[in-house]
Structures are given as C-alpha cells and as structure tokens.
C-alpha cells in the first residue's frame, strides 16, 4: 500500500471517526466517491477503532492488520540450539517486520565468536521482502567502516531461507547511552561525530540508510558508535531516483519525501540525523512524537513545522535537562540558542535541497561549533563573528594587542626622538635625517598595524565571518599596495606573515613572503641574529615541504650561521644550529650527514642542565624517522624510546603535541621490527593526541592514519586497514598534501588491496603512486623513496601474475641496492626476500631455494630471531620442498612455520594452516587436512576476497576434500 494512499485514508478517517453513523456514511459517500478500495480501507480502520481494546492507543498489531500489513503474523522464534552453517542460535535479540535477529555462537570449533544472525521471517518471505533482505546483506558487505557493524558471514538455511551474520554489538541506543552518563552538549556532539563518519562513508558508497534512529545507533562500553540495520537502505547507483516503490520507513523519523513518495536521496538521511541530534540535545522529538503516539496522530504532527530546539529545551522537565551535565531547562535552552539551533534547523528543512548538502557538511559545522568558529549553514551576525574570533584566538588577540602597545610605545619614543632632533639646532644633518627616518618608520608601522587589525572588525570584513586566512590575506594585500615602504618596516611584517601562512599549510604563499622578507637582511646584534635564525629555520622547512631541496639546504645553512653568530661557547645555539643543518641535508637526501648532525645535537644536549627542549625532541624524532627510512629499525626504536624518555624527564605533558611525531615514528619502527600489535596501539595513541589538540583534519593526521593502515594491514585486519588508509587519502586531498605524502598514501592503500586479494586494484594504485612521485622528481627525498615504491609495485605485479615485469624490476633494484648500500644492507636483504616471494608465487624452486638461503643469511644479521619474516621463510622452504616432491620435508618446515605464527593468530595463521592442509592432502592425510581447512577457511573468508591466492587455493582444496 503506497504511503500517499494510507495518508489519504487516515485523513478521511479523522474527518468521519466522530460523526454519527448516518452522517458518517454520507460523508464517506462524498469523500470516497468512485474509489471503493479507498472506502474499504477507511472502513477497516473505523472497525478497528470501535473495538474495546482501542488499537490507536497502543495495539500496533491490530492497527497494522487493519491496514493490511502482515506485521501481526509473526513466525515463532527460531529454537535455541538450531545450527545455521557454522553458527548455533543461543537466543533472540529482537525482531522486526522482515525478520528476527538471533544471538549466535560459532559452532564449528575453529574459534570462539559471538555474533548476531538475521533470519528472514517466513511470513514476510515475499519476492520483494527477500530482495530487500538480500540487498541489506550485499550493502553490508560493501560497507567497511569502524562505526558500521561488520558483516561476518551469510548463506541459506536448509529450507532455502537467506540469513546473514554480523558482529554482535553489546551497546545502548545513543540517546540512552548519553543520558546514562549525563553527558554535556560537547560530549554528545563529539559522539554524534562518529555517527556522521559512518553515514558519510555509506553515502560515499552510494548507500542511503533511510532508517536512522537511536535504536540503530548503538554505543558500546568503550564509547564507540556502531550503525546497524540496513534493512531498508537503498543503493543510489543504478537506481531510479524518482521511483516511488519500496517505501519502507519508520514514521517517527520519516522525512517528508518518504511520507509523500518523493525521490529518496542522501538528504533523507540528513533529515533523520536532524531528528536524532534534536533528541540528543533537547531530550525531545522535534515533532512531539513518541512510541505511544497513535499512527494517525503521527502523520498529523509530521506535517507541521519542527519545534525549535531552544523551545523544546525550555519546556523540558528538570530531570531531562539535568541529564545534560546537570543543566536546568533554562540553562539548557540558553546553551542551545543560536548556532546549535541553526544546525538542527539546517537538517529539518522540508525541501531536501535546502538541507545540509552532505553529512560531511553537517560534521564540519558541528566541528566549527566545538572550535568556537562561525557556522557555514547560517552566517553569524557581525557581533557574533567578532566574539567567536576573540574566543578561539585569545592568544593571537592578546599578542596583537601586545604588538599594538609595543608599536605605540615605539612610536612614542620615535616621536619624542624626532622632537628632540628638531629642537637641537646644532645637531648634525645626518642625525636629523636618522631621526626623521625613525619617526616615519614608526608612523608607517603603526598605520600598517591599524589597517591590518581593521580587517578584523565585522563592519569592515568582506564576509560576515572574519577568518584567520581572511585577516592574513587582507594584511598581505595592504602591504603590497603600500608601494615604497622602508624595508625595516615591511620585511619583519612579511616574515611574520610567512610564519602564519606556514601554520595554515599554505607553503607557496609562505615561501614567497619569506623570500621577500629576508632579501638583503643581515643581523645587527646577537639577539637579532637568533630571532632571524629561528625565522629562517621555518623558511627552510617550508622549502623542504615544497620539495625545493637545494634552496632548503641553503636556508638551513644561513640559519645555522646566524644561530652561531657571536655565540662561541653557547651550547644551546650549537644544538639549534645542528638540528636545522640536519634538516637541510635531509631535504637533499644527504642522509649520512643529516644523521651525524642530529646525533651531535643530541650528544651535546645530554649533559646540559637546561637544554633547548623542543629542539632536542625534534632531533630525536627526525633521527628516528630517518633510521626508519634507511631500514635501521632496531636503532630507530632505541632512538625514539630515548626521545620519549627525554620528553618525560624535561616536563613535556603527556598530552603534548611534541609527542605525536615521536609516537608515530616509534609505531612504524615497531611494525618494521615485527611487533605489529604494539605498532597499532602506539600509532593510535599518537592519533588520539593529535585529534584532541587540533582536530581530525590536516596533513599530520593524514600521515598518522596512513601509518595506522599499514599496522592494521600487517595484523591481517584488511577491512579496517582500508578504512584507515581511505581516510588518510581523503585528508591528504583535503589538505592538499605534497606529492610525496600522496605517493606514500597511495602505495600503502595499494598494499592493503594486494593483501586482501584485489591485485588489479593494487597494481593500479601502485602505478598512481609512482605518477605522484614523478611530480616531485627533482626532490632528493623523492629519489630516495622511489626505490621502496618501485619495490612495492614489483611485488604487486608478481601477485597479479605479471612475473616477467616483476622479475625485471627486482633484478634492477637488487643491483642498485648492492651498488649503493652494499650486500650487508637491509635494502639488499629485503629485495632478496621479495625475489624469494616471487619465486614461491611462480612455483620455481630451482631459482627460489638459493635465493632463500642467501636471504636468510642476510636477514639474520639485521632482524631479531622472533621477526615474522623467519616464519614466512619456513613457509617458502616448505613450498619449494613440495614443488620438488619432498612432502616430508615440506610438512616439517610448514609445521614449524605454523607453530611460530600460531602465537599471534589471524590471517597469516589461517594461510599457514591452509598450506599445511595442501601438503597433508598430497600425502594422503585427508582427515587432518580437512580439520585444518575447517579452521582456516572461516578466517580467510572473513579477512580476504575470494580471488585472494591463498583463499582461492584453500577453497579449491576444500571442494576436493568435501569440506
């Protein structure tokens, strides 16, 4: 039954329900003239209304029956103990119109796992319902996100009924979870941000949920949101946006287009998000609906305008308001007034085109509210813009005031000096000219500051929001229009603006300002030299970021010379000079010299009672990152642990941003040393610090999520790795990161697709990575990174079966590693290992066995004995023995490999089990091979794609063995 039809029937019902029978019949004759089906529907509703149990006051089953629904025809619950595939039902979690959700346990002995199984209800098993059920399963399979419940398995019962299994979420609805903890508004909005991340991911995959409500947004004990129930979700791709069929909905959260059979788009989810947010903040439904509201009344109320957020809060009872961090109704209404009310209103506009354009746009405005920034949905008043600017820029505002006072004071001194100069008729002409110059410079500085700060006044702004970027752009334009200005006035301002543009990430503008600001500049005192050196060090970093290596080194050398000017015996100045020199040499990929400079800075600082803390921490993190880059992972870990200990010893707070790069580099070192679990936890700690301090965007955050994706890939958690790396790539695009960063992100993403088994996609991403690297071909760093990216590309080609191309690249890279770094280097050993992997993939034992022997010898000098690479070397040994027909030797080596890998579990263990099963099956040990496959296949099916080489081989063997 179409929703428009039911709405028409309900409206007629409301008009006639209270009329006397004769008048009712006459009215029905008039309103339903020529439409017997409509009249029959209204009469069914009237009959239900006349029953003693009052169906409109809560008997939803009888009301649904009156409408012709089958919701009352519930099938009996599936019995506990019933087995579906590898899953055993232990109870029922809930049921809906299409099916029941059961608690299940893994029952095949592979491992213990609790999950939720959704089984279609037999009474609802129409072709349309089955199509919807299967569509939900398919949608879940394509949505891999930390805040979306993960699909684990799916299949058909012996009766042919479809089911699917998803992760079990032990949580509460988001509104109940927030109320139970009496969370304040900021905490609720931060939690709601996880919901928006999940919805945005679904929208990017062209999926509209259509049923967003608190009961589908569960929060677990760790405060992680999980989006559930895509039962009425709809793919946008390939669908007719104007189609009006399949209008399943929950009335309490239904959008106007759902109620009136309009086109369903992502705007539908934005409406529902607005209702959820309204309830989270005010405790009330924006249309006054509740679970017990009769259905006709729901439809009436949904046609009205939503109640403003502040009014709902003001009308809340004391208990409801108090659940929001102890606020009173009046205090709650006051906090919701303005920005937050505008955000909710931006979701609940009846015209879909007038709502927020996307979940990302809604998330951006909520993030802006958290940061005391003006919203984009509704421009603030001038007074509000000024107030918000001052609130979020207390430091810069105070600094600007201090600068103003300093210039005023300086101007006063200059004016006094000028008056004195004029008063003394006997003063020399040169002194008079100098006084006049000082007077003019002071006036020019004061006027420039006045003009710049005037841009911050809302009445002078180009827009109602005065952002830091607008302020800087106005200041730069004002400076450029001045024409001939004394360099002593203009250049310090140019350098200041250069630093500010650098902090905003606009490196090109910063570099141009620094270049102008330093032209012809020379320090006239020790104090001025130190100040200029600090600014020049920033300039060197900007040039490095732009991949202008030679210029970066020249700037670093100039900064170091200024640090050392008249500073003989000053150890602090020497440390600063060494750190910036190391950075300059790293910019041209002169890594040996960079390493020596940073080591010297650290050694010089260690005995100092008051070392330059931030500079020394920078030296530690840069040195650790360099050692990771050059493959000295054990040394890198040691250096980075020393850096963290130095930070602890010198009072760096636990939540300081100074720790972020140290932790990120340590996480990468842990991963390279084979401790993947510790790598993940360390990188997550760095992400938590970064996002707490500066939010969830920017180049640094992109690099952190890239490192997290690599750690998760190493752990075999490919779906999570893909989510992390896609997030890193999106942040890199948003922040317009350098080509090097983009190349690394693409290569990392390709590695995960390779691990998951999508080899064609992996090769495509590796090739895109090399294209981005080519954009930075003049950079020394780019040349240093090319070796690693080409190595990854060759590995991907080998996995894709393009053996000749892969072998040629590996041969070239091996020769280069031998010539550049020697046979004892990690680079040479790692290429040997990749050639072993390629020979294993090709089944070429003749070439692979000698390569394996040499690789083991080389890696034995470079990596700890517990490193996973040695377990994988045993797997390669077993494969080469199997190819030669020596199944006994193959079994011995493979069992040894499995014993080493079993301690960590996961995908690598499952792969080793499947490989051992193949060896055993070849030797006639059928029963043990079957048992191993039963353990391995569920893990592989959950972790990797069907075409992944190891899974494909295991599936084929299972078919042969009847598993």
Summarize this entry quickly.
This protein is mainly alpha-helical and 963 residues long.
Molecular structure report:
The chain has 963 residues and is mainly alpha-helical. Among the domains are: 3-66; 83-167, Phosphorylase Kinase, domain 1 (2-Layer Sandwich); 171-379, Transferase(Phosphotransferase), domain 1, CATH 1.10.510; 865-963, Alpha Horseshoe (Serine Threonine Protein Phosphatase 5, Tetratricopeptide repeat). The chain is 64% helix and 5% strand. The chain is flat, with a radius of gyration of 34 Å.
Layout: helices, strands, pairs:
Layout: H1 3-16, H2 21-31, H3 36-49, H4 60-66, E1 83-84, E2 87-95, E3 99-106, E4 114-120, H5 127-142, E5 151-156, E6 162-167, E7 171-173, H6 174-180, H7 185-204, E8 207-208, E9 217-220, E10 225-227, E11 234-235, H8 256-259, H9 266-282, H10 295-302, H11 309-314, H12 318-322, H13 329-336, H14 339-347, H15 359-370, H16 382-392, H17 394-423, H18 429-454, H19 468-481, H20 487-503, H21 507-518, H22 526-545, H23 549-564, H24 571-587, H25 591-605, H26 613-629, H27 633-649, H28 660-672, H29 676-694, H30 699-714, H31 718-734, H32 739-756, H33 759-774, H34 780-799, H35 803-821, H36 826-842, H37 845-860, H38 868-884, H39 887-901, H40 907-922, H41 926-943, H42 949-961
Antiparallel strand pairs: 1-2, 2-3, 3-4, 4-6, 5-6, 7-9, 8-11, 9-10
Global shape: flat
The averaged pLDDT comes out at 77
Strand order of the largest sheet: 1-2-3-4-6-5
Q: From the helix content, strand content and strand pairing, which structural class follows?
A: mainly alpha
Q: What is the CA-based Rg, rounded? A: 34 Å
CATH topology of the domain at 171-379, by name, is Transferase(Phosphotransferase), domain 1
By oligomeric state, this entry counts as single chain
Helix proportion of residues, in percent?
A: 55-70%
Residue windows where pLDDT falls under 50 for at least 5 positions: 52-76, 236-248, 380-428, 452-466
According to CATH, the homologous superfamily of the domain at 171-379 is: Transferase(Phosphotransferase) domain 1
Topology, number of strands = 11
């Amino acid at each position: 039954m179409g929703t428009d039809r039911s709405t028409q029937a309900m409206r007629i019902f409301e008009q006639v329900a209270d009329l006397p029978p004769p008048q009712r019949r006459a009215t029905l004759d008039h309103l339903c003239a020529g439409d017997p089906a409509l009249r029959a529907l209204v009469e069914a509703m009237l009959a239900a209304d006349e029953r003693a149990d009052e169906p409109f006051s809560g008997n939803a089953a009888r009301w649904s029956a009156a409408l012709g629904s089958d919701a009352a025809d519930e099938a009996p619950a599936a019995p506990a103990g019933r087995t579906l595939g590898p899953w055993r039902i232990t109870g029922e979690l809930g049921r809906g119109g299409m099916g029941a959700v059961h608690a299940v346990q893994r029952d095949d002995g592979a491992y213990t796992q609790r999950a939720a199984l959704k089984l279609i209800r037999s009474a609802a098993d129409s072709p349309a319902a089955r199509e919807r059920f299967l569509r939900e399963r398919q949608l879940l399979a394509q949505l891999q996100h930390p805040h979306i419940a993960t699909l684990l398995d799916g299949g058909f019962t012996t009766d042919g009924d479809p089911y699917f299994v998803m992760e079990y979420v032990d949580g509460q609805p988001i509104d109940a979870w927030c109320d139970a903890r009496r969370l304040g508004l900021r905490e609720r909005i931060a939690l709601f941000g996880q919901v928006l991340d999940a919805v945005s991911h679904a929208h990017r995959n062209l999926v509209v949920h259509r049923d967003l409500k608190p009961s589908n947004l569960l929060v677990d004990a760790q405060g992680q949101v999980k989006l559930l129930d895509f039962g009425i979700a709809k793919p946008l791709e390939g669908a007719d946006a104007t189609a009006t069929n399949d209008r399943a909905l929950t009335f309490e959260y239904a959008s106007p287009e759902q109620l009136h059979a309009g086109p369903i788009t992502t705007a539908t989810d934005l409406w529902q998000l607005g209702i959820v947010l309204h309830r989270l903040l005010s405790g009330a439904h924006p249309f006054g609906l509740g679970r017990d509201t009769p259905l006709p009344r729901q439809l009436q109320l949904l046609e009205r305008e939503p109640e403003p957020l502040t009014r709902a809060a003001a009308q809340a009872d004391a208990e409801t308001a108090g659940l929001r961090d102890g606020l009173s109704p009046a205090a709650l209404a006051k906090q919701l007034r303005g920005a937050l009310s505008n955000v909710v209103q931006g979701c609940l506009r009846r015209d879909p085109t007038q709502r927020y354009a996307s979940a990302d746009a809604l998330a951006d405005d909520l993030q802006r509210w958290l940061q005391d920034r003006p919203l984009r949905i509704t421009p603030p008043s001038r007074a509000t813009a000024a107030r918000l600017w001052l609130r979020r820029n207390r430091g810069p505002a105070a600094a600007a005031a201090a600068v103003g006072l300093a210039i005023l004071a300086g101007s006063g001194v200059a004016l006094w000096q000028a008056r004195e100069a004029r008063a003394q008729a006997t003063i020399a002409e040169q002194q008079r000219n100098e006084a006049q110059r000082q007077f003019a410079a002071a006036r020019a500085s004061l006027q420039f500051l006045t003009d710049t700060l005037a841009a911050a006044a809302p009445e002078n702004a180009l827009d109602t929001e005065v952002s830091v970027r607008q302020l800087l752009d106005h200041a730069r334009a004002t400076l450029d229009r001045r024409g001939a200005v004394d360099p002593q006035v203009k250049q310090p301002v140019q350098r200041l603006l250069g630093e500010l543009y650098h902090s905003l990430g606009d490196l090109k503008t910063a570099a141009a300002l620094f270049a102008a600001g330093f032209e012809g500049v020379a320090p006239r005192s020790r104090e001025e030299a130190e100040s200029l050196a600090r600014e020049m060090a920033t300039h060197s970093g900007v040039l490095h970021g732009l991949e202008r290596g030679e210029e970066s080194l020249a700037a670093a050398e100039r900064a170091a010379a200024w640090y050392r000017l008249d500073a003989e015996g000053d150890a602090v100045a020497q440390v600063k000079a060494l750190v910036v020199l190391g950075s300059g040499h790293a910019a041209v990929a002169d890594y040996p010299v960079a390493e020596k400079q940073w080591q010297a800075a650290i050694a010089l600082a260690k005995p100092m009672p008051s070392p330059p803390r931030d500079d020394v921490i920078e030296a530690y993190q840069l040195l650790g990152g360099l050692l990771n880059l050059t493959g000295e992972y054990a040394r890198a870990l040691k250096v980075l642990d020393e850096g963290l200990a130095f930070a602890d010893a010198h009072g760096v707070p636990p939540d300081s941003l100074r720790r972020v790069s140290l932790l990120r580099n340590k996480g990468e070192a842990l991963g390279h040393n084979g401790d993947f679990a510790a790598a993940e936890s360390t990188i997550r700690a760095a992400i938590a610090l970064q996002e707490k301090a500066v939010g969830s965007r920017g180049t640094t955050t992109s690099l952190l999520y890239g490192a997290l994706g690599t750690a998760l890939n190493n752990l075999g958690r490919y779906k999570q790795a893909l989510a992390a790396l896609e997030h890193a790539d999106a942040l890199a695009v948003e922040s317009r990161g350098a080509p090097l960063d983009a190349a690394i992100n693409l290569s990392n993403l390709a590695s995960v697709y390779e691990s998951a088994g999508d080899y064609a996609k992996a090769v495509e991403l590796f090739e895109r990575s090399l294209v981005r690297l080519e954009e930075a071909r003049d950079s020394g760093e780019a040349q240093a990174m090319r070796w690693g990216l080409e190595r990854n590309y060759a590995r991907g080609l080998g996995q894709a079966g393009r053996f000749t191309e892969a072998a040629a690249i590996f041969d070239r890279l091996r020769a280069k590693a031998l010539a550049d770094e020697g046979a004892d280097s990690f680079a040479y050993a790692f290429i040997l290992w990749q050639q072993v992997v390629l020979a294993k993939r090709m089944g070429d034992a003749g070439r692979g066995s000698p390569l394996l022997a040499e690789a083991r010898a080389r890696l034995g000098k470079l990596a700890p004995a517990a490193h996973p690479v040695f377990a994988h070397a045993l797997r390669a040994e077993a494969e080469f023995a199997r190819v030669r027909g020596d199944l006994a030797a193959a079994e011995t080596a493979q069992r040894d490999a499995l014993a080493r890998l079993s301690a960590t579990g996961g995908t690598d263990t499952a792969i080793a089990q499947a490989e051992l099963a193949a060896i055993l099956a070849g030797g006639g040990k059928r029963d043990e091979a079957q048992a191993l496959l039963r353990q391995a296949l569920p893990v592989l099916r959950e972790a990797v794609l069907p075409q992944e080489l190891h899974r494909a081989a295991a599936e084929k063997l299972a078919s042969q063995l009847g598993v």
